[in-house]
Amino acid sequence: MLQQKLYSNSSERKQREVNICLLCRGTKLLCGKPACPILVRTSSITRLEIANKKEIFGSSPPSVFVGRFGYPKVMVGPMVPPFQGDTSYLSKFDYWYSEQIEEYVQKVTSLVRGMYPVRADKLPENYNFLLNLHDLVLSSKPVDTRMDFKGKIISKVYLSEDVQPFGPYGYLERMEYNPSSSDKVIEKVYYDKDLKATEAIWKLYEQKRNLYTIQQVFSLGMLGSKNRRKVVPTRWSITAVDDSLAKFLMRKIRDFPSIDEYRVFFSRSMGNVFSVILMPGNWSYEFIEIFHKGSVWNTWSETPAIASDFEGPNGRTTYASIGGCYYASRFAVLEYFSKIRRSGGAIVVREALPSYYIPVGVWIVREGVRKALQDNFKSFSTLEDALKETFSKMKASLNDVLLNSNLLKSLKKQRKLKISY
Question: Could you report the per-residue pLDDT of 142-170, keeping only the tens digit for each?
């Protein structure tokens, strides 16, 4: 067994399990178990009881989902709630930021997923079906949609740290829909087959299109040059869009003057506390996550589970070990620097409390950092004072974080910080 090889004693075993959970988050099964026990536990909490129907009719926000299992042959389909009206709020994550976690999960899991097999890297196959989904996503308003399934709707909930919770699903046999008028800005880049995908993403962002919509059109293979378009799993598209936009913003802020003080921001939502420390100087960035006992990725250890990753002025060339949250946070910070036309470095600390017991998706990090940076901040002349302010409002110990932070260790040596650990 994998676990028997990893652990020499029970104490080491518990700590190692926590570390594995932060690295895996239910996606890699590093513990050697056939299914993630944390996600199994939380999905049973949110399991829905849906009548044994073989069809559903309602207003899609509009929303679609592209799976990743079995790639490049993946399941793709629309998401539709069993009711009509203005359902656009179901895909606007800034709307949910101040709500309770239970209410959010209950509402978004009302969306029923239609699942239809598509070859992700070969668009001509099942192309008519994909074109119908393109029409759906191009719509500027919710779309009345009917889905007929091959069998009964399966009443389970899909949970992940990277994507929003998804509700029941069924294997799609037929779809009918009544699209509204198209969003002209998205339509323009959709039909531009000479525009690179990264440039299309940036154009949509500059035109203030909803980030979730940009992720969807990219995921469905609606952006990019003619022969390079392909379907991308939803969870991959989220990080790809965050990363692409961050790289544009990083190049943009290099010509801006640096801030001349340390700024500390805070926000709270759904059992998460976010602190952002902005620093004078060249771009550098670290994202630190702290999961307390009882929170979703720390069910075993009595001590906080801490993970971090960082980059210097030239960014990074490898994928961050802690996944999509790193990129979501980085994008939000660079977005702020771009808006104030300044540059600098950043340390973002996310603290997950026991009340964060269900993963709701990477959006909670992006919107948490965005919300923090929208509010007032406190200014300090030294990093020591900025760190003290940050951890005076957090449950975790500054010393624990210093032990797990590469960027802070580096800054401690460079600037001779008078902080012990």
Answer: 999 999 999 999 887 777 778 888 888 99
| pLDDT, position 261 | 97
Cα-Cα-Cα-Cα dihedral sign, residues 335, 336, 342, 344: negative
Residue 233: asked if its preceding bond is cis (omega within 30°), the reply is no
What is d(CA 79, CA 84) in angstroms, rounded to the nearest whole number?
13
55-60 sheet: strands from edge to edge? 55-60, 143-149, 169-178, 112-119, 73-80, 64-66
Sorting pLDDT into bands at 50, 70 and 90, what band is 416? low
Q: Going by C-beta distance under 8 Å and a sequence separation of 6 or more, which residues neighbour residue 408?
A: 286, 347, 387, 401, 402
Q: Is the dihedral of CA 87, 93, 94, 96 positive or negative?
A: positive
The structure's pTM equals 0.87
Greatest Cα pair distance, the chain, in angstroms, is: 66
Task: Give the three-class secondary structure for 240.
Answer: helix
Every domain of the chain and the residues it spans: 2-35, 55-182, 185-251, 262-415
Residue 418: DSSP 8-state: -
**CA Rg value for the chain:** 22
